[in-house]
Write a structure and sequence with these properties.
Elements lengths: L5 H10 L3 H8 L18 E9 L4 E7 L4 E10 L6 H20 L3 E9 L3 H10 L3 H18 L7 E4 L4 H13 L3 E3 L5 E3 L32 E5 L14 E3 L3 H11 L3 E7 L3 H16 L5 E7 L25 H11 L3
Parallel strand pairs: 3-4, 3-10, 4-5, 10-11
Antiparallel strand pairs: 1-2, 6-7, 7-8, 8-9
Bound molecules: zinc ion (ZN).
EC number: 6.1.1.16
Protein name: cysteine--tRNA ligase
Cofactor: Zn(2+)
């Protein structure tokens, strides 16, 4: 019988390999050059399993690009505050799915997770606390990792911080502009041009077409920032468009592509990330790779609700419980209070 920590052993061997070799081993060829908005069943290794794919809103056969290996990218935390049980629930659920794939079906899951360590909320928190944003981010990143360890969630093969990947992000944006899917403004911002991809925007529902707001330099109200000009007092990086910082969505497209190349088997995250975050990730990645199906499966975790409440657990509603509880209590909460 296989040890429950088989994946951990695989990951540890994986991490001892030079990063460039890992990248060469994982990169697939160009993603399938299909057209249209419909999901296309991938070709490759049929696991015999089915997963609920948010792209089709139904169970689909899980077919991987390589036999016995699943490439898996997940949106990690924005590290500006304590994580709560709503976040924990999502990570525990996907940990269970990954353990099932590896332990019961012998599939090696290679999981990369981004740590969002630069963001409006982090900057705001750093101003409120009068502490450098890098210190705030580092403090809550370490706390998040401790929380996950306390819940026995197997760590990803690799964590990648946004601030350590800015040159890659700049190059990624530059390619999207050259491919004709983004534009710059006189102010030094860069926006994704939604109209340039036509009907392909809206895989998770999407926003209705509308006119730009007065004073906005966006061509279409749905266009979203790839690069934001820095305001006074904000952290910034140099770019061909001036000093600024990455928009939120571009970090995931860049980092997932840096690790896994032009195609991804599985992408996961909370259901509240489906739109606009994952929708925009798809638009950017397919505009960069010039393909029509970048990630084959999107797995979304539902909200955690407190018993008797229709409201999800969230910081803004102030109804959250932090993860500083015994793991046993977490699993009691997990099984007793979820609706997904
Ligand atoms: Zn993401």
């Amino acid at each position: 019988m296989r040890c429950i920590f088989c994946l951990r052993c695989v990951v540890s061997a994986f991490l001892q390999t030079p990063f460039e070799i890992i990248l060469r081993a994982l990169h697939t060829g160009p993603c399938s050059n299909i057209s249209g908005t419909e999901w296309t069943k991938p070709s490759g290794f049929d696991t015999g399993l089915k997963v609920f794919n948010s792209l089709t809103k139904q169970k689909e056969p899980l077919i991987l690009a390589r036999e016995g290996v699943a490439t898996w990218y997940s949106c990690g935390p924005t590290v500006y505050d304590h994580a709560h049980l709503g976040h924990a629930c999502s990570y525990v659920r996907f940990d269970i799915v990954q353990r099932i794939l590896s332990k019961l079906f012998g599939i090696t899951v290679i999981h990369a997770m981004v740590i969002t360590d630069i963001d409006d909320k982090i900057i705001k928190r750093s101003w409120e606390e009068n502490i450098c944003s890098t210190v705030i981010a580092s403090m809550y990143e370490e706390e998040f990792k401790r929380d996950m360890l306390s819940l026995k969630v197997i760590p990803p093969a690799v964590y990648l911080r946004v601030t350590e990947n800015v040159p890659q992000i700049v190059a990624f944006i530059d390619r999207i502009i050259k491919n004709g899917h983004a534009y710059t403004t006189q102010e030094g911002d860069v926006y994704f041009d939604i109209k340039s991809i036509g009907e392909r925007y809206g895989k998770f529902g999407g926003a209705a077409d509308s006119q730009p707001e007065p004073g906005s330099h966006k061509r279409d109200a749905r266009d979203f920032a790839l690069w934001k000009k820095s305001k006074a007092g904000e952290p910034y990086w140099e770019s061909p468009w001036g000093r600024g910082r990455p928009g939120w969505h571009i970090e995931c497209s860049t980092i997932a592509s840096t690790v896994f190349g032009s195609q991804l088997d599985i992408h996961s995250g909370g259901i509240d990330l489906a739109f606009p975050h994952h929708e925009n990730e798809i638009a950017q990645s397919e505009a960069y790779h010039q393909c029509a199906q970048w990630a084959n499966y999107f797995l979304h975790s539902g909200h955690l609700h407190l018993k008797g409440s229709v409201e999800k657990m969230s910081k803004s509603l102030k109804n959250y419980i932090t993860i500083k509880v015994k793991p046993g209590l977490l699993f009691k909460l997990f099984y007793g209070m979820t609706e997904s």
